[in-house]
Design a protein that fits this description.
- With 320 residues, the chain is α/β, with parallel strands linked by helices.
- It has 2 domains: 206 residues, D-Maltodextrin-Binding Protein, domain 2 (3-Layer(aba) Sandwich), CATH 3.40.190; 88 residues, 3-Layer(aba) Sandwich (D-Maltodextrin-Binding Protein, domain 2).
- It has 15 helices and 10 strands.
- It has a 5-stranded mixed sheet, with helices on both faces. A 5-stranded mixed sheet has the order 7-6-8-5-9.
- α3 crosses α13, α9 crosses α10 and α9 runs parallel beside α15.
- It is globular, with a radius of gyration of 20 Å.
C-alpha cells in the first residue's frame, strides 16, 4: 500500500488525523503513517529533512521558508477560523466595554491573530494586549486574569471553556478574523509533483474524514474513541464527544482557503518569523482539490453521508 507520512504536534489534532488515516486505508489505498513530533524546532525541520511527507498544522513558518527559496505546497485548509470564544465577566454587555482596557493573550498559537481581530472590530488602537504565558497560568487558563479583574477579556479554545464558565465568566459573540487555521496541510512542492496520484487519493481521504465528522459524527466517534482518546488522555466519553463537537463545528468539507485567511496568515507569519513572500498565493496549489470538486467527488460524498440532512447539531451544552 502507498504511504503518506503525516506529522503533527498537538494531540488535540488526533480526532481529525485518525479519521483521515482510517478512511485513507479503508477506501483509497493509502497507508497514513502518523508521526508525533512535538518540539517546534524538530517539527519545522521535518519536511525539509525528509522526516515526513505532509504536515497538518503549524504552517505559518513555511511563509518565511518560502521567502528563503524553499519550494513548498499548501494544498488544503479545512478550517479558516480558529473558533476561539471571547470570555468576559458577567457584567460585560458590548465590545465597547473593552475600550481603554486590556485583553489577556496566550503566548502560544499565533498571538498576533488577536491584533487582527481588534483591527477588524475597530479597537486596535484603544485596547492593550497583555501576553500571559501558559507557563504562568496553565494551558488555556488566561481566563484567570479576567476573573481577577486584571484584564477585561481573553480568547479561549472551546474545548477549554468549562473551567472559565465554572469560575463565573461567560462568552460573548465576536466574529473572528479569518486565518488558515488548524488541519491546514503542506508538503514539499517536489513531493507533490512526483506523487500527484497519491496526493489526490490522500486528499480524497482528508475530505471524506471532514465529511464524516460533520455528517456522521457517531461513526467518526468509533474511530476517535480508540487511539485519539488515549493520546488526548481522556477517559470520559461525554467529554470526548464535547471536544469533538467543538472541532467539527468549525470544519469545512470543501477545504478551500479564502483570500482574507491567506493574507492574515501571511501577516501573522511575518510578525512571528520574519520576511515572507511578496505574494502568499504562490504557496498554494489547489488543483487536486479543484479536480475533485469539479468531478463531483465532494458533492456526491456529502449527499451519500448527509442523506439531505444539515450539519449535525452539537451535543455541546453552550460552549460553542
Amino acid at each position: 500500500m502507498r504511504t503518506i507520512r503525516l506529522a503533527y504536534r498537538d494531540h488535540d489534532r488526533t480526532p481529525v488525523i485518525y479519521c483521515i488515516k482510517a478512511l485513507a486505508e479503508r477506501h483509497y489505498g493509502v497507508h497514513v503513517d502518523v508521526l508525533h513530533i512535538e518540539p517546534q524546532r524538530e517539527f519545522e525541520a521535518a519536511l525539509f529533512d525528509h522526516g515526513c511527507d505532509v504536515i497538518i498544522e503549524h504552517i505559518e513558518y513555511l511563509h518565511t521558508e518560502a521567502a528563503k527559496g524553499k519550494k513548498i505546497t499548501l494544498f488544503c485548509a479545512p478550517q479558516i477560523q480558529r473558533g476561539l470564544q471571547l470570555v468576559v465577566p458577567q457584567s460585560f454587555n458590548s465590545l465597547d466595554d473593552l475600550d481603554g482596557k486590556a485583553i489577556a493573550v496566550r503566548d502560544l498559537g499565533r498571538p498576533h491573530r488577536i491584533t487582527l481581530w481588534l483591527r477588524k472590530v475597530g479597537l486596535e488602537k484603544s485596547v492593550r494586549t497583555i501576553i500571559v504565558p501558559d507557563k504562568e497560568v496553565g494551558r488555556w487558563q488566561q481566563w484567570r486574569k479576567v476573573a481577577s479583574g486584571e484584564c477585561a477579556a481573553c480568547f479561549m479554545a472551546p474545548i477549554y471553556l468549562p473551567a472559565a464558565i465554572a469560575a463565573g465568566l461567560k462568552t460573548f459573540p465576536a466574529s473572528e478574523a479569518e486565518i488558515v487555521s488548524l488541519f491546514a496541510q503542506a508538503c514539499l512542492a517536489e513531493f507533490g509533483r512526483n506523487n500527484s496520484a497519491l496526493m489526490k487519493d490522500y486528499l480524497k481521504a482528508v475530505i471524506h474524514a471532514l465529511a464524516l465528522l460533520i455528517y456522521r459524527r457517531d461513526e467518526a466517534m468509533e474511530i476517535i474513541a480508540e487511539e485519539p482518546m488515549r493520546l488526548m488522555q481522556l477517559t470520559d466519553r461525554y467529554e470526548l464527544r464535547r471536544q469533538v463537537d467543538s472541532i467539527a463545528a468549525l470544519l469545512q468539507v470543501k477545504p478551500y482557503p479564502t483570500i482574507e485567511a491567506i493574507v492574515n496568515t501571511d501577516e501573522i507569519a511575518a510578525q512571528e518569523y520574519g520576511p515572507t513572500l511578496e505574494n502568499p498565493l504562490t504557496l498554494w496549489d489547489l488543483h487536486w482539490l479543484k479536480e475533485l470538486d469539479d468531478q463531483g467527488f465532494i458533492d456526491n460524498l456529502i449527499a451519500s453521508l448527509s442523506n439531505g440532512k444539515a450539519r449535525l447539531a452539537s451535543t455541546n451544552n453552550g460552549d460553542q
